[in-house]
Fold each of these.
Amino acid sequence: MVAGNWKMNTAQDEAKALAKYIVVNTQDIKNGEVVLSPPFVYLFAVSDAIKGSHIKLSAQNMYFEDKGAYTGEISPIMLKDAGCQYVIIGHSERRKYFNETDENINLKLKKALSTGLKPILCVGETLEEREKDITEFVVGIQIKKALYGIQDISNIVIAYEPVWAIGTGKNATPEEAEEVHFFIREMIRKKYGNTADKLLILYGGSVTVDNIGSLIEMKDIDGALVGGASLKGESFVGIIKKVAEKR
Ligand code: PEP
């Protein structure tokens, strides 16, 4: 899987043009999943632009209620209505700037699943946590709390995104990433058995067309969640092609 997180970028025309470029230039790629995650207000426009193609739509966040007096929030039902099949949950920017807690993330995951959306759960350590050598501890707690009370994880995707690598141009080495991906898969195996083998674990953090080739060689790296490089058609398509070649 390659998912593009457009964050708070693009204008409507750019969003439509980018989506169409990706549709046209990945038509021959049949293996794997390509997911686009535009800002909320462009979901319908992008949904229209990718209609009839193999590309899937994702939101960048959601609230954990269906409807009601929650000014400014977007419900999972609305996301489905807009054509989403996926939703990113717990992105580190939401944890950092919008006080997203593990408890909220757990509620959102449960609600997404019960609404029929596939969550892309983001986890990852800060630089300080990595330097203290507590990466696995931090990621382990994030996953444990996010999945609390969830019995079936077959529709969940996990994205390991070290915070120090997001938007910094400093990606984790393939070996550093693989170590954490392996840890995540084995942690999942302990609780969910062999479903762990089918779990997609994406790497995110300064992925480019130049570094994706060596990352995707790693046994437990099943794809990428891409921020900056997903905003340029050519680089995003390049990443998709390199992932498709290896899988
Ligand atoms: C992201 O926001 O999920 C991300 C990985 O961003 P970037 O690729 O720009 O580091």
Amino acid sequence: MSQTNRNILLGISGGIAAYKAPILVRRLREQGANVRVVLTKGAKAFVTPMSLQAVSGHPVVDDILDPATESAMGHIDLARWADEVIIAPASANLVARLAAGMADDLLTTACLATTAPVILAPAMNQQMYLHPATQANLATLERRGVTLWGPDSGDQACGEVGPGRMWEPDAIVAAWLEWVAERSAPQPLAGQRLLLTAGPTREALDPVRFLSNHSSGKMGFALAAEAARMGAEVTLVAGPVALPTPAGVTRIDVESAQQMLDAVMAALPGQEIFIGCAAVADYRPVAVADNKIKKANARMTVELERNPDILATVASQPQRPFTVGFAAETDNVEQYARDKLTRKGLDLIAANDVSQPGQGFNANDNALTLYWADGHKSLGHSDKRQQARLLLETIADHKACQ
Ligand code: PMT
């Protein structure tokens, strides 16, 4: 598939993998991309501006204070010109400078000045990659919407073995083609406001203990990411999970079911679609101890009371959005899912059989079956991103027919 006329700003930072950059430029141009190269100072020790100029067909820039390059295409123009910024290799030093929001050379300045998506192909010594500082920097960048491609694991130039090898140029080009294709796909939820819940809730027993469940948030976060990619304006109310916020999604973090209900009701006005994917605790302790409970007796009884039902509350609003629930079942899946569909007054319900290994709670895959008043559809077994896409497409179809 040719991607003629997409503008790629290719950043190259200092590392042995920079020797692969001319091949990467050539491969991207073979796919029809316009490539302009920005080098860091360190990169010039590994690859020459001359060779990159020859393969890219454009002058290679490396200095923000160079009046000649600034008068031709300055850093702001370069930042505006790019459809995407790919940095390969992205060294530990560059990752740290980007995470800190520095603008101390042309490449970091362009990254701050651009509204284009930024993609990094990290490459560094395995210890440097595994260092908590580098991991924290990468996590910070991901939270800000930066995409990471790699690294691979294997033999390193320094003689060590481990994670930190830059993806090969062909793998980067393949990922870029897939990435562009995803972004060019139709946007069936364009302009729609979508609110969803994800993850577990925690119901406190005392200051250090809580009741909860095994929800990781993966299904709900996949829905949020896909909905944003399909053009929706997404608000995600998340229980306590260790997942980065998907690009373009507004996230509200909560702990308990009551907090989740409050956040949902505050965000509800104007929403066109609501999806309850969170595994909300059905019960909470009647009393929360002020201090840590001591183990005074061999047995202990905790009195629980019902939590509010967030999904049913949304579905009962007079101005309600298209309301979708989930059903996590271990048996009689269809019967229990249909019962929830009717009892909670939903437009559609996505049922998962959570008794099966490799799907449901904390798995990367799922196998949803969708039920509505007069029909059903099985989505097969696939990763949660694909399940999310199929569910959202079905929601868009049903909503269009309302
Ligand atoms: O997070 P993952 O690890 O990726 O796992 C995904 C998942 C298994 C959690 C997800 O696919 C799923 O099934 N979510 C719903 C889990 C659940 O609580 O199901 P339920 O059958 O108990 O609840 C039915 C529906 O009512 C759900 O939409 C739930 O969000 C909602 N509910 C339940 C109780 C409550 N007090 N308020 C609610 O809104």
Amino acid sequence: MKKEIEQELNKQLNRELYSAYLYLSMAAYFESINLKGFAHWLKVQAKEEISHSMKFFEFINERNGKVVLEVIEKPKVDWSSPVEAFKDAYEHEQKITSYIHNLVELARKNNDYATENFLTWFVAEQVEEEAQANEIYQKLKLCEKSVGGLFTLDHHLGKREE
Ligand code: OFO
């Protein structure tokens, strides 16, 4: 595997860990305002992000690359409202999608078919990641003036399976 690709895959591994950190920080925010269902959903999401980072970990090793773990950026710790938190989550996923797409372009430019094939899973996954964050964001906008709506959504999100 080319050095440049190895370095970029390592950067993405770090971004996936940052995603876990961000969602865990959001979970702490929701715990602090007693919306336990949102907190649960975000804790499950954080675990999913760690599993994404592990896919990069294993792939880099399989290709005889070297995993290099860097510092994980400190995430935001407070939000002014649930809507603001999920707006951030949605925008974050859009940013992650563009990083994945840039990686695909890099793999293509280098005729690295194995990396391109590995990234196909992430291209599809990002469609889902964006859709689910956006769905919650849009629903939160609808219940901005309805505490009942917010509690219903909280209850529903609390049922997310691991
Ligand atoms: Fe790893 O998909 Fe979200 O960030």
Amino acid sequence: MKIRPASRIHGRVTVPGDKSISHRAATIAALASGRSRLVNFSSSEDCGATLRCLRELGVALEQEGNTVTIEGRERLQKSSQVLDCANSGSTMRMLAGVLAGHEFSSILTGDSSLRSRPMMRIIEPLEKMGARVGSVDGQPPLSIVGSGSLTAIDFEMSVASAQVKSCVLLAGMRAQGQTTVLERQLTRDHTERMLNLFGVPVTTEPLDGKGAGLSIQGPVVPSARDVHIPGDISSAAFFIAAAALIPRSDLEIVDLGVNPTRTQFITTLQSLGMDVKVTDSAEVSNEPVGKVRVVGREAGLNSQRAVQSNNLAIELIPQLIDELPLLAVVGTQITGGIAIRGARELRFKESDRIASTVTNLRAMGAEVEEFSDGLAVTGPQRLGGAELDSFGDHRIAMAFTIAALLANGGSTLVGAESVTVSFPEFFPLLESIVEF
Ligand code: S3P
């Protein structure tokens, strides 16, 4: 993919349905009594993997455009196939929680990236609850022997992960008694919201000190619902960053999910003095939905409010985890640059996102320091056009497409096709709002 520098971003767009919310809606609808209609379901390959696995487990579902209709079944059916989660950590970790409560064995695998990702974080709690989970040194493939009589547990997460929290809560739906997950750093709360929407109460208690305890009383069966899924803010983030940084830009994104556990990227841009406004927020299907308007800054690299140094608060890292590579790109364009620490989890994503980000930024001539748990870029600095690599990682592909729009001279991106994992419409939508 060849990418030229952009002169501005302009227009009004919607982005496809939220990937995190779509995974949850499909998984919970599959276990519900009755038929659910999921409107504006994510077009991502990741969510496609969730639907495929659910079909393999005997769930009747139909897809027409972006609407998915799911006939729930209280008990899934053993699959004769290995369940292929492709590139999707969410599919594997959430399904593992569901399958732990089913009295049959299942095997979950994925592509080479997913097969190198850590799974002890879900194996430990699921085994405590009474499932047997085999792995290859803590990595997939996973073999799960579920149990019809899981034990409820109190579980304190050692890593801040919404996928782990969701896995345990979904297993908790089939356990006897109250399962509680303690999170010391808040992570996205879509599972709690979706379970509540489907009539399964999840209570949230603030913990003294910080964080929250989430409890679910099992066994419980969700009731089918129609769900409207809002646009994915983690997809919109790429366009928001480009519009905020490129002078004379004006962009509006409508029907966008603006759940406070996901908007930290916008809050961060605002705190850096950028003109990003969220309006018209309303609750739809138990999720906040709104409109975002971004106006580009004035010409010149130094035009935004001067700051001493931009250190991200560590407790906020889990709430903008997917936006950190993009934020590193933003950091090169602002006074004070940006330092991201306490983000070791980035090394265990679809690629080692600290290494992928540092390699690409250096290819563009940027000054950047790498740490085991993050990176620091100086700013403002001019990025040079370069040969860039997605490392097979959708978010790296998109973050560096944006970097290439900001650069001096043309760039080439190897592995641009990986965007389909979360956002197949990324390039055509970008084309519709970019001017060269
Ligand atoms: C997700 C949680 C995050 C995030 C991923 C989606 C989710 O992962 O990086 O893209 O939908 O719960 P972790 O929970 O492992 O941090």
